[in-house]
Write a sequence for this structure.
């Protein structure tokens, strides 16, 4: 399967991928229900190795779509929610390891690092009973962002590094041009790549990010290939409901069955681009292990509507079903082998779906940090 992904990459010569054909982009605001819960709306998930230490995996989970820098202090993580990153080393996409993250209520107090007047605490539960606890970085209306609060924890001979707080949205895409492209296609059936404007619709916007760096072996053991996806849950739980192993204290009575899954994401734009409107909520509520049964027919029908070449349909279906982000440690990083912040997945997917070789929407790639937390600091309000 990973060889097939490499073939997909070769189809767009010279591209560094970053993907999303859809009404609202990568996974930002992709379904009716999640529109009510912006703090747990998964925008993107990125997975790549730290270039300075290729034994370490970096996971970036982006939520809180299209946050306005003018209102930086108002965006927080959801306290009665579970943010989860799953990993699987089997072909069935059944979780074999998870990282569970919960947040305290947002409050002010002496524990907040200066100059922050208010903050949240998070607890991240890794495999093998490892718990990392730290403080979030809070958004501010000041001219410069608050310094990032980075937490580290030694694990054996390695280190887990963690961050939670606002960053500039790493995603870039010409959404206006895409909507014009889709409108003409729906009206005439013709494909017109000239309708893209080259203007990044996500320029000037922030998100909230959860960023972890840790040894690959912590979630994949010795497996050379694995997959990952994120999910968010909402329910009647609080920060103090978890023990030191990331389990509900009253797990016999409630367990995860007491929570309602409201969003999930593996590959960017699967829900927004390939799932029809009447199934978008159902897709977000589903599990990757059930995708072949529940959503493959709908994905194939969408590709048929776009007249996607037959040789490409099975390739795209294998990427999206199950909807997990795949990684092969023997291959170079870059979508579809994981996903780096600068990967131009939108260009790749539009090229493949509507058969425009070498397509680009004309947007300029954003710049990123060379070291943790990799995503750039949040943008601040301007006078």
């Amino acid at each position: 399967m990973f060889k097939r992904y490499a073939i997909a990459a070769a189809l767009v010569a010279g591209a560094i991928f970053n993907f999303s054909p859809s009404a609202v982009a990568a996974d930002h605001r992709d379904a009716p229900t999640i529109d009510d819960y912006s703090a747990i709306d998964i925008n993107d998930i990125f997975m790549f190795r730290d270039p300075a230490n290729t034994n370490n995996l970096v996971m970036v989970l982006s939520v809180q779509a299209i946050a306005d820098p003018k209102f930086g202090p108002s965006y927080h993580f959801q306290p009665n929610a579970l943010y989860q990153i799953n990993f699987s080393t089997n072909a069935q996409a059944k979780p074999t390891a998870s990282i569970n993250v919960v947040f305290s209520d947002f409050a002010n107090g002496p524990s907040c690092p200066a100059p922050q007047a208010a903050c949240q605490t998070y607890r991240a539960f890794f495999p093998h009973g490892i718990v990392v606890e730290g403080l979030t970085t809070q958004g501010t209306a000041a001219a410069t962002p608050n310094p990032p609060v980075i937490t580290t924890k030694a694990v054996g001979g390695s280190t887990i590094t963690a961050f939670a707080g606002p960053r500039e949205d790493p995603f870039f895409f010409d959404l206006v041009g895409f909507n014009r492209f889709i409108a003409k296609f729906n009206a005439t059936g013709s494909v017109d790549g000239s309708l893209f404007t080259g203007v990044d619709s996500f320029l000037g916007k922030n998100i909230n990010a959860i960023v972890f760096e840790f040894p690959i072996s912590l979630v994949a053991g010795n497996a050379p290939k694995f997959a990952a996806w994120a999910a968010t849950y909402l329910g009647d739980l609080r920060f103090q409901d978890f023990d030191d192993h990331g389990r509900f204290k009253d797990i016999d009575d409630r367990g995860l069955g007491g929570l309602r899954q409201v969003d999930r994401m593996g590959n960017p734009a699967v829900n927004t681009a390939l799932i029809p409107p009447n199934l978008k909520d159902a897709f977000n509520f589903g599990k990757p292990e059930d995708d072949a049964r529940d959503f493959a027919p709908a994905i194939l029908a969408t590709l048929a509507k776009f007249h996607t070449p037959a040789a490409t349909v099975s390739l795209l279906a294998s990427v999206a079903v199950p909807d997990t982000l795949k990684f092969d440690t023997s291959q170079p990083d870059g979508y579809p082998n994981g996903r780096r912040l600068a990967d131009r997945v939108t260009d790749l997917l539009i090229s493949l779906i509507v058969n425009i070789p070498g397509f680009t929407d004309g947007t300029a790639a954003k710049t990123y940090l060379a070291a943790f937390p990799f995503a750039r600091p949040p943008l601040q309000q301007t006078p």
Observations:
- The first helix runs from residue 2 to 10.
